[in-house]
Design brief:
The chain is an alpha/beta fold. The protein has two domains: 178 residues, P-loop containing nucleotide triphosphate hydrolases (Rossmann fold, 3-Layer(aba) Sandwich); 71 residues, no CATH class.
């Protein structure tokens, strides 16, 4: 399999202005500004093969979303380099953008006051897709997600689970080769989570895209991921398979036939957080 995502010493630092108290100090701050520095991503080196689902796991603020935003071109790195499908993402080449998609579980890409089907027509025009072809694809994806009955209902009238299904259809409309999924099952009930996991598993078997998936629901990672990336305070602290991680991270739990993957992850990240 070919390497489709590669990074070398990729880093991102954020600076935030320390606003002093009082009007006089604020005025002085115009000429003498002080900033806090936060390393969101620290010299990350990765190689990801095509057709794989990569589970990216870490605590809140660990750097997961920052990595996805850099690889999708939404954020420019402070230092280091990265290529996705041979392109530097932050250069935002149109040919690159037509081959990727990013879905942020807490943000909508579809329009709130119109139906999903109308939004899909707009997306088809943005991606220069033939309308008849894109409509057929929408119906196929909706059939797989069991949501054809709500395609013509205003997005704001749909449940959270139904809205997420619509967002997934929008993200896959142009058949991207690379898909970044940031918390796609956040806030969903158990049934909706299971439906989306089954859909993604079947879709990957059929279309073989490369997916980087972040989730706080460990069932998503344990069920779907071919490879596991653990990130702690901006550093990748583990790369490998889920099974290898469970066996090597905690010998006590590894011999338990009913090993709780979420518990192993939690203990590992707590240890890493204390070390760092």
């Amino acid at each position: 399999m070919s390497i489709v995502i590669e990074t070398k010493d990729l880093s991102r630092e954020y600076l935030s202005y320390q606003k002093p108290e009082g009007i006089l100090n604020s005025i002085k701050g115009i000429w003498n500004r002080k900033y806090d520095s936060k390393i969101a991503l620290n010299q990350t080196t990765l190689q990801i093969e095509s057709g794989k689902i990569i589970g990216l796991v870490g605590a809140n603020g660990a750097g997961k979303t920052t990595l996805l935003k850099i690889l999708s071109g939404l954020v420019t790195p402070t230092s280091g380099d990265a290529t996705v499908l041979g392109y530097r993402p932050w250069e935002r080449d149109y040919k690159f953008l037509k081959q990727i998609s990013i879905l942020l579980g807490q943000k909508n890409q579809l329009w709130w006051d119109i139906s999903p089907m109308d939004s899909f027509v707009l997306l088809s025009r943005i991606y220069d897709l033939e309308l008849s072809t894109s409509r057929k694809r929408v119906l196929e994806l909706a059939e797989m997600l069991q949501c054809t009955h709500v395609l013509n209902t205003q997005l704001r009238r749909l449940s959270l689970g139904e809205r997420m299904k619509m967002e997934i259809i929008g993200a896959l409309l142009h058949e991207p080769r690379i898909l970044f999924l940031d918390e796609p099952t956040i806030g969903l009930d158990i049934v909706a989570q299971e439906n989306i996991r089954n859909f993604l598993a079947n879709y990957v078997k059929e279309k073989e895209p490369t997916i980087i998936l972040t989730s706080h629901y460990m069932d998503d990672i344990a069920t779907l991921a071919d490879r596991l990336l653990l990130i702690s305070k901006g550093n990748i602290v583990y790369q490998g398979t889920v099974d290898e991680f469970v066996k090597n991270s905690n010998s006590e739990l590894a011999h338990d036939e009913k090993v709780d993957f979420e518990e192993v992850i939690r203990r590992f990240l707590e240890t890493e957080s204390r070390i760092r």
